[in-house]
């Protein structure tokens, strides 16, 4: 799957194209190249920032990470090695890393990590809860926000891939947790299955500021922000002194022309609020901690894994576009091939 053009406004099906190109099942000696059969592909909102049209003066998303129309789109995923020129990998190894939105990937071996055969859990988990989404939740909550017992935590897009894990980790750490999501079914899931103390449908609220005041009469200590925009503004207005905000994502602001909002900076200063942006990839030092803790939690039934699965390469564009409509419940992944 490629983009046909740089995306303007919201992503739509016509922005994508399924291309069929021949694949040579051999690698140049000395190239360190590995050919992978893709099994699971992670579908993530941040890809829109790589696909968008930018003016030449734009500095935030570097040209090197932008997606070029007609070129493969790489994303986290799980795959099986078919051919390898990298001595670290042999045929049939199972790996995670950046794979293409397609059936096969050709990549340098250095970009891949072998899956730990000791982890006896579904392979798809490595594209979500044990992959980048899980690490994002773990790093944002514990490293950026220093969550501790008794903290009052608010998380947006709480039924999404990152958000549901933030809430579950926070509950396991003894925090009081409220999430917001975009439908009644999602709210019910958060409260009844995932153990959130409370949850609300932000689409049914006319005034986000007073909604948060209702759910947090004693103020918010930590806001894990997945959406940006007006929700960030309202959360900051309800934060306690020395509150922490993990600026993880701003999905409400990703589409060109989206409405933007900003927190009241006088509030930020007088309440000594720390707002910190972060990227999970900068927190790989936590990876082994994160993996062993999360694997144990899953085995003990303390973390409930939420996956939302589509099948086949051709389903990738609609899976991606659906993230921006809130179609997904939990981690959106596409199954590309049988394991
Ligand atoms: P999700 O699985 O949560 O999917 C996106 C969800 O966001 C949707 O299901 C929808 O749920 C909600 N949403 C969509 N549009 C809006 C909107 N306009 N306003 C409010 N909510 C909206 O995605 P992820 O969990 O994978 O990612 C969550 C955030 O974290 C994203 O912003 C992403 O870019 C970011 N991220 C950041 C990383 C980092 O390293 N900093 C790494 C990974 C992700 P609903 O029904 O509730 O509206």
TrEMBL record:
A Gene Ontology molecular function term of the record: oxidoreductase activity, acting on the CH-CH group of donors, NAD or NADP as acceptor
Keyword set includes Transmembrane: no
Annotated InterPro entries: ADH-like_C (IPR013149), ADH_N_2 (IPR041694), ER (IPR020843), GroES-like_sf (IPR011032), MDR_fam (IPR045010), NAD(P)-bd_dom_sf (IPR036291)
Chain ranges of the Enoyl reductase (ER) domain: 46-334
CDD domains reported for this sequence: double_bond_reductase_like
A Pfam family of this chain: ADH_zinc_N
Superkingdom as given in the UniProt entry: Eukaryota
Keyword Ion transport: no
Keyword annotations from UniProtKB, A to Z: Oxidoreductase
Coiled coil: none
Protein name per the record: PROSTAGLANDIN REDUCTASE
Species assigned in the record: Salix purpurea (Purple osier willow)
